[in-house]
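Blackboard transcription, Thursday session:
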Amino acid sequence: MSTILETENLTKRFGSLTANGDVNLTVESGTTHSVIGPNGAGKSTLFNLITGLLEPTSGSIRFNGEDITGESPHEVARRGLARSFQITDVFDGLTAFENVRVAAQFADDRRSSMWRSADSLTDAGGRATEILEDVGLADRSHQRAAEFAYGDRRKLEIGITMATEPDLLMLDEPTAGMGREDTISTVQLVQRLADERGFTLMLIEHDIEIVMSISDTITVLQRGEVIAEGTPDEVRADEEVQRAYLGGAQL
Amino acid sequence: MDVNLLVLQLLNGLALGVLYLLIASGLSVIFGMTDIINFAHGALYMLGAYVGLSVIDATGSFWLALLLAPLSIGVVGVFLERTTLHRIYDRDPLYHIILTFGLTLMLSDAVEFIWGKSPQQFPGPDAITGAVALGPIFYPKYKLFLIVAGIAVAGGVWLLFEKTNFGLIVRGGAQSRQTVRIMGINISNYFTLVFGLAAVLAGVAGVLAGPFLNVTPTMGDQIIITAFIVVVVGGLGSFRGSVVAALLIGLVQSLGTVFVPQLTGFLVYLLMILVLLVRPQGLLGEYEVRSDSTKVTFSEIIEPVSITDKRALGLLGVLALVPLGMGSLYSPYFVGLLSLMFIWALLALSLDMVMGYMGLLSFGHAAFFGIGAYATGLFTMHVFNSFVAAAAVAIVVAAGVAWIIGALSIRLTGVYFAMITLAFAQMFHQLALTWNDVTGGSDGLTGMPTVDLFGAGLVSLGDTATFYYFALFVTVAAYVVTVKLLDSPFGRVVTAIRESERRVSFLGYDTNVYKRRAFALSGAIGGLAGALLATYQTFVSAGTLHWVVSGDVVIAMMFGGIGTLFGPMFGAGLFIGLQEILSSYTDQWRFVLGLLLVLTVMVAPRGLITVYSSVRDAVRLRMGSGGGPQRDAATDGGENR
Amino acid sequence: MADNDSPAYASDRRTLLRTIGAAGAVGLAGCAGDDASSGGTTETSGESSGETSTSGGTTGSSSSETVKVGWLYPSTGPYGGLATYQEQGAKLAIKRINENGGIDGTQIEGFHEDTQADPQTGTQKARKLVQQDGVDALFGCISSSVGSAVAGYAAEENVPFYPDVAADGLTMENCQRTTFRYETRASQTAAAGAPWAVDNFGTKVWIHNADYLWGNSVASAWEKTAKDHNSSVEVVGSTTSELGATDFSSYISQIMSSDAEWVVTGLNGGDAVNFLKQSNSYGLKSEKTLVSPVNSFQFIRKAAGEAAQNTYSAIRYYEGFESDANSEFVQAFTDEYASAPDNFSHVSWVYMYLYKRAAEKAGSFATDDIVEAQTAVSLDGPMGTTSYRECDHQAARPYSMGEIVAPGDYDWPDIEVMTTIEADEATVPCSSVSCQL
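(Written on the board underneath:)
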């Protein structure tokens, strides 16, 4: 097992507020790694730092052994790191098919060609169809994303991120706001895809039950700092986690 | 420099700044609360001066005017807000701009109709006429009063915002509407109140300006752009920012005329560009503008009509026949007017490409139009009289300028992008006005030859029919190329950027590259339109570069149907045609045009192309053709979100 | 007045017609340099000759018997106020001429368009007038940029153009054989005003102008004329403001802090009014003498009111000018509109009569005939006798300089004439005009 992502003393300050302080995190390739913590613990900030949306105040980030600190989102994405957002971010005005194809198109050398039809990139088109089938939206591929229900938009976003063929997929609360049933099916979908396609999964998730059942490793953040890291069992047993995060209740 | 003069100029700058402050603070507060860029604010200021004038005529009292006129303007403001804006707050800011622009046209025409076009005398209060000695210098008492009164009013407004519940809610609303709603407050009533309050401030400014500046129907047009600049420089939605920026700009203008007179027309725009590049949120902007407040979104995606569509072919067939009727059915003028409409259609196409497809609000497309026109004019005059060669130069220069402007401003979005492109275009306008030796200054570029298509006498474009066919060909070709371009992988990325730039960049695309390239392509088409314009007119005026042209294209684009490529082209043609025809029949043509704009925004937000399809659908339903309305390229209805 | 078609020259009209008719051929000699080949079109109205003109008066205006004239006004935009006067003058003149038998029996049909004070729109409207309405001549405009754009277009289309524009260039650098200007050239008013101002106010002058064609024309003409008159004249400072500027405080402050004795301003319309009003509030008038080429305009005197009083201005026209032709014109205007005419009404009026004279002399409305005849006629207009020079197609007449004083016959400030110079003195000799026709 190799390390795919590693942060070293990653710190982000907004004025006097420390959103992340000396975060050291290691994600092993092929695992499912969850980040949990109470609201305001700095989970999304951590994701934003890793994916280049925010610039760290100090510390470094290594991805597949290379330093990516300070790179912009598109550079990070090109290295094989994809992500979803807390508030679903898809191309509302485009059809589901076009949503995914634009993502799949990136792998093609002709991705910014101006003098041929986008339809001529058959590889991208084929992969888009395939992915839509995978995420269960194949029959609605010509509907605009704006018309999709909440859960389907989430699935579409996952489809988009997958189309870039990432090594690491980071999902920011993929099931937030979903009903129980949707939540389970979405999580199962993601894990199945991760297995099939062999990418590493990293997620922020609130539903502790889900986290416990699917994660290989869990990192617990509090006030921007890592207070525990380990397997679900280890984390469950960690007293500090129980005290600080779970209010002393048994997991 | 003479100390007395310095003191005088400082006072002058202060007085000017206070006037800007009264107008800009209203604009800023409206924006902060509702995200609306109220173009009609200048018209309200102007109306304030006129109502004040009438009060003085009736009562002889300036003080009564200072009380009654602003209140009346407040009532007018509330009325306008309730009847129009209030119903479309959920729409994109573009619609608000167009709507308030329409209201501006209506208001200024109404004022002209009621009070006449001539500047009017606005008597100041007797007690404060003449000058007073301040040490060694004399200064007008009225302007001292203006400074004091303006600061007092602004202070009052500040207290209102800082110390009252009303202010708390308004400031809260500016930060987060949701929070205020959760507190159980009907925020939409506050929108109306804020709009009314801002209108009152505009009215105060109008009356205060009366005795000092001219009272004319155009007084609002001149000040509104400066007021926008103040708001942007100070920070959108920031009252304190407006105060600082208003005084700063007043002083810069006043001192600029002494220290750098040759830069007078450029200074304010330079200042704005500098601020936008270094600190986009403005000097005292406290928060980022909501990203959704500046997005271009559509309820429906309408694909461009294919050129092989039978309606498109039919239209082209009819257009191809037009010159045959010249002289018998109609005059060459009509054919020429159609050519002009093609040129504007081309410009609208160029704008729709970046605005409708990439979501970049360019408010400076006049720059490319004008640069293309000047390049063509200068080239045919001084180098070689050939359209092909001149247009190539025009396209390259316009695209190059667009690329540079794009590169400088690309990290700005929404309103900020609109303002910086406006500033760049206005600088080119100033340049055309002041660079007399090359551009002919305000006189324009005269002495252009009748242009040959290839040069050396080969195919003269001076012939009305020839030019018509040529312009038609170029326009159709540009349309076809643009449609193809947007269907390409590149085009798909561009469209995706409109929907979510962040998402696109997280797929690995460097969005700035795409935006720059698309902007340059758009500039190229704009330059081509300019080349045609110069050829058509054999004359180029600085007016081609004026912001009004940029505004007109934006309006024409919305009028026709943004984001459809063919809609804006129809819109532009129609807009120019209507202006031309209406203005021949009535002096009040701007009122009619304004009314049309307001109605279009209110009733057919996706533009006139949707009116056509809605009507046709209705007819089909009535005729019982069965199966309901067909949904094809142009039939998607115009319901708002 | 029943059979007088013009109050201006009714008495000697027939005599003049005859004289000029005879002298016509001679008068044309001056145009020999012109390309004669283009003049040979066969188009003539063939309708009437000068001798039959008095028989008119009852002609029905069937389409074959009207002459179409196109007028361009900046009705919307910054000069809207001036445009109203201009349009009133034109419409009144057309009406009066038609009532009195038209032009040799041919009724005039007027077409009126709004240039929006924009050269592009102006050219487009001129195009409409020529191509769609089929007008035989173009008139009007006000702003210099529109005027010169339209002049270019009119020359291209070979249509006579009578511009109401005062910038020098139009008849000094870019003369066109189709352009005929009666409106005062900036240098003509400078000739009337600058030497007198130097003699009366001193040699230290400040020049301020709006930065556009006419404004710059004024600045250079006044400077040159003043210096030619007295070599010790010194321009102690010069400033320019944007056209349409509203706040002149900083310029006024600069002038006040200088040691200039008088100020000449190349400002017109709203700019001029603003400058006067703001100067007044600074008390500039008590320190420096204000001189202008145009503040005598009724429009400016009305809008500036008291602020215009005790300033000096060259006079292009004013309603109180004493001449028979003017009192009849003022009477006619007042009867029609219940107000007194302005300079722009007067120019419109004179243009229609000048055109009438040329058409009657030519016996045709064809451009080439009009162009030939126009320089051979003269008119006894409200401001004196006027005629066109052949070298540059600029008309001249006597010019005056006056002081704007307290209201007299009207509600607004009156004018007191201080000095008057003859047409010849005011107009630079043909030899120093850079374009030659």
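Lecturer's comment: The mean pLDDT of chain A is 86.
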